[in-house]
Amino acid sequence: MSADLERWRLILGPASERQTGSLNGEAAARDAALDWLYGRDSDLDKRGIRRGGAKGAGDGPSVLDTVEWLDEIHRLFPKETIERLERDAIERYEIADVVTDVDVLARVEPNPNLLKAILRTKHLMNPQVLAAARRIVEEVVRQLIEKLSVEVRTTFTGSRVRRPSNHRRARDFDLRRTLTANLKHYDPELRRVAIERPYFHSRTSRRLEQWQLILLVDQSGSMAGSVIHSAVTASCLYRLPGLKTHLVAFDTDIADLTSDVEDPVELLMSVQLGGGTDIARAVDYGATLIENPRRSIVVLITDFYEGGSESRLVHTVKQLCQQGTQVLGLASLDEDANPDYDRGLASRLAGVGAHIGAMTPAHLAEFVAERLGS
Can you tell me the distance from the alpha carbon of 9 to that of 19, in angstroms, rounded to the nearest whole number? Predict the structure, then answer.
């Protein structure tokens, strides 16, 4: 079978074999691995397509368990495909043992989607599985902090004003000004600029007066991505001089997690996703933490689907804005910032003075830096 026919056979399934021919060797193994996962799709029955590989689908026996399937896809597919297959197993088909089986967790590649699944299912895990899951949490958090901390440091400690300096340090060499000032010494034969006088600049770092940042994070089931990135963002911001950071998670109850904000792994392992949502109660609690209203930023991270009192929420946000507190309502806080939220309630909050939007953790850091510098 040619490579093109093989590709079409993998895409179209067994029904296409009259035209493409049968698969053999690794191609057949790839088809079995794909069928184990995607054969679960209920739409196949509606379209009259029968599959044989997936557990409970078709007439044939299951040939793979989850551990064997993971071993197979790691042998048969490139990294990008493996990540997609693992994500679909976790999110699309909710195959629980991907995150509740020690052997599976030992094989699966740590990634943010797996972390979300762990947070949703850790209440089902025994101590041995929890220990294996914690390895995943630690690795993903390490990757996120490594990326975000650079962006936060750049935002808050990068040069704000550059001024001429007599201190000659290589890192402060002003290339543009030096070239401009010495162009008259250009030698066309050698094609070089003779530098008679080099120029340097000094960096003026941001000086932060004492501010409070209060992160209120909805921990309902749909907000797992926001909870993860809020914890990591809070940890990165917590160490900044002049900024006092609080982290509060809420559903219908409230959990002040500020004491754990330096350890985002421990923080995430203590979060309980799910339950209802009382945003008004969370904002009321956040208001009690404010020490200086004009030096405070309240960031509300939620989908704005209020299970409590909308009128009370709007009233509290209005009071906060009137007293000079910056209120930011975020519909999403993950790497993609794809918002899904109640636009009606969000619009009401914007109408009383809140800033409403969707942004990534890096953009949140920029927003906070701008407010602190104003």
Answer: 9
